[in-house]
Amino acid sequence: MLEKFNQLSFVIGVFFVLVSLVLIGEYFFPIDLPKIINLYTGIGMLVFGLLMIRSKA
Amino acid sequence: MTLHLADYLIIIIYFIFVIAVGFIIKKRIKSSNDFLNSNRSIPLWITSLAFISANLGAQEVLGMVASGAKYGIMTVHFYWVGAIFAMIFLGVFMMPFYYGSKARSVPEYLSMRFDEKTRGLNALTFAAMTIFSSGISLYALAKLLEVILHWNFDVCIWAAAGVVMVYTFMGGLTSAVYNEVLQFFLIVIGLSPLVIVSLHDAGGWSSIRANLQPELTHAWKYMGNAESNPMGINFISMLFGLGFVMSFGYWCTDFLVIQRAMIAKNMSAAQRTPILAAIPKMFMPLIVVLPGVVAITLMQPALQSRGYSIPLDAKGALDYTMTLPSLIAHYYPSGLLGVGITALIASFMSGMAGNVTAFNSVFTYDIYQSYFVKNKSDNHYLYVGKMITLIGILLSIMTAYIAKSYNNINDFLQLVFSFVNGPLFATFLLGMFWKRTTGHGAFWGLMAGTLAATITHGLTIAEGKGGWISPMFEIKSGMGQAFIVAAFSWLTNFTTTILISLVTKPKSDIELKGLVYSLTEKVQAPEQKWYLKAAPIGIILLIITIILNILLF
Fold this sequence. Notes:
A: 57 residues; mainly alpha; 70% helix; elongated; B: 553 residues; three-stranded mixed sheet; 71% helix
């Protein structure tokens, strides 16, 4: 698993998955009103992150 | 603008990742070549994205959004006229010499093609420019964070410089390049929602066209006369000044971007690096120009109910530089706000790291090894490269504080750099395609070009700037003045280089083999499919670029 961090696409993928989790979390547990834009962007980043993790580049 | 926990979390995750990349790459650094040149081992998709990302610094992101608001859709010329053609030319015609000559830097190519004095001149001016650019980038980041988030200026300077220092010191060029790719995705993905929500709020493209003056929504229609468009230049100045002199001068000679192509795995990848980079570059106006156009639309009477306005500066005029931060503050809620701020921080750090890594390569190879300490072990140059990285960061910090104390120094330095860069492409064009060009011709051509740029600036005045010799000619915009200065300096360099070359002795054909077009064997790669070759991809991209220009005519 640790060896995968030598692969840039994996690093980028993990980064975006983590950021997406923060955004999705912010939608479900908002400071004030939930903002749908956080959810949509979070889902978009999650998909992108997972694709990058799976890619062999 | 106030950040919350989620925003801080995203900024912290980003900092952890960029530093982690440095530590991951550190294990691979065994020689000076690994540290300064990535051992020419970087995959094509990474070199291509790093190539475009090296030009996606803060000046680009904030500056283009600001220009979008100020000049409207004409700002796309910086991409579709001022970048794509030059990037394709670099890939198809110039990379074979840069990469094939096995030069480790652009100044080193100049020493092979011409002589040491031309190399020295280019290396010294380039090293100075990269450090000042890096420092100005750092200053602008700290200033922006101070203004919009009320963070402490000194803490911002040292924290940002510290993070860049850790990852560039650990992993050298590879680390900088890997982080540039991460930064590229962050900027694009982080700013895309802003484009969508702000455009939707403004009522879409049809509403923009309905609400803005027509000269702000057409790229070419009002360029027949300089007086009838917001940039104040006609299409000839645009095509020659920006489309040829400035564009080719930057994309085809600036080591900062070319270095990203020079670290590709092989010649084919090196040639395709700028060409593939042209694909995202072509669509970058959607991310960095459109928000500016949307911002100015939202301030029109019919849309004032949306509650957005570009902030004013101390004189009460629109502060266009703050267009992007103010859009982020207006549309992004907590969470996405952290992404937007992180994207801004990433753009500044990307600009700084790119400059520092280019600086350490040029300083180590073209100044230190060439003029001071030759024939030492590779470990010695690796050590020097690392020390130069630290020194480069410290000089950048120093420059940032100088910029803080003397506000006008930024404008002054940018001006001096444009004088030096303006004529540069003429030297490379003649050097690569006319074997008769001599070292004396190249050197004195560059000097004459720089002098011509200085004099032209002294004789023209635009927006209160220039005209320090005598304000003989008035130009509507500073941008138009920059194009005219660049054009004159290029023409002067071109003619001076030719004239002096004709009366001085050229190098022999044997010495120029692999460095000049007519004396370089054209390598064919028949096994390669057409869509993997530089020229066919380049032609397709040219056609798409022309179509885009027609669509926004």
